[in-house]
Design brief:
GO terms for molecular function: DNA helicase activity; hydrolase activity. By secondary structure, the chain is α+β, with helices and mostly antiparallel strands. The chain folds into 3 domains: 59 residues, OB fold (Dihydrolipoamide Acetyltransferase, E2P), CATH 2.40.50; 62 residues, 5' to 3' exonuclease, C-terminal subdomain (DNA polymerase, domain 1); 51 residues, no CATH class. Helices cover 47% and strands 20% of the residues. Helix 7 crosses helix 8 and helix 7 crosses helix 9. It starts with a strand and ends with a helix.
């Protein structure tokens, strides 16, 4: 029904934003990745998906078409609804999720909120053949040292968010402390020291 909504960001909350367009405020459920990229007062174009249920209608929206495509793929997996799909997209960006799925990385997918081993296996089974078909940008390998560093940063950021820090604070700390550490545990400790200054 709605391809996208273009307007001014009026509110930014932990799991949704409000965009005003022609005098109407649209509550748009979204991921931490999108929330991290917007701030109140921004004029944005947000790509949307209308979710219709028997007792509710809601809008999910994303800053990029890539994230919207991945949301639609995740939402197509049996037993993964919009809420869990948004949690997964808050856990990792679409290109990393694509890499996890294509490399059948059950361990990494299982770390996403609301995803256990069985759900991770189901995601791989149902989406592995769809990633290329839907032209989702992805990394084909996670074996290089640079990608290993990215994974360690992702894990550190998620740990900091779980401790109560915002995604923006966690990413900022991880970026500033990454050169001083050689593993995830060390990075988390350095980030906590940085954030408590």
């Amino acid at each position: 029904m709605y391809q996208y909504i273009k307007g001014i960001v009026e509110e930014v909350n932990i799991d949704f934003i409000v965009v005003e367009c022609n005098g109407i405020g649209y509550r748009i459920n979204t991921s931490q990745n999108t929330i991290y990229q917007v701030k109140k007062g921004d004029e944005i174009k947000i790509y949307t998906k209308l979710i219709v249920r028997e007792d509710d209608m809601s809008i999910c929206g994303f800053k990029t078409q890539e994230e919207l495509k991945m949301f639609e793929l995740l939402n197509s997996v049996s037993k993964i609804g919009p809420k869990v799909a948004l949690s997964i997209l808050s856990f990792a960006e679409p290109r990393r999720l694509g890499a996890f799925i294509l490399s059948e990385d059950i361990a990494s997918l299982s770390k996403a909120p609301g995803v256990g081993k069985k759900t991770a296996e189901r995601m791989i089974l149902e989406l592995k053949d769809k990633i290329d078909k839907h032209n989702v940008d992805f990394e084909q390998t996670l074996l290089t040292s640079s990608n290993k560093n990215v994974l360690e940063m992702d894990e550190a950021v998620q740990a900091l968010v779980a401790l109560g820090y915002s995604l923006a604070e966690a990413k900022d700390a991880a970026n500033k402390c990454k050169k001083e550490c050689c593993d995830t545990e060390g990075l988390i400790k350095k980030c906590l020291m940085y954030l408590m200054k």
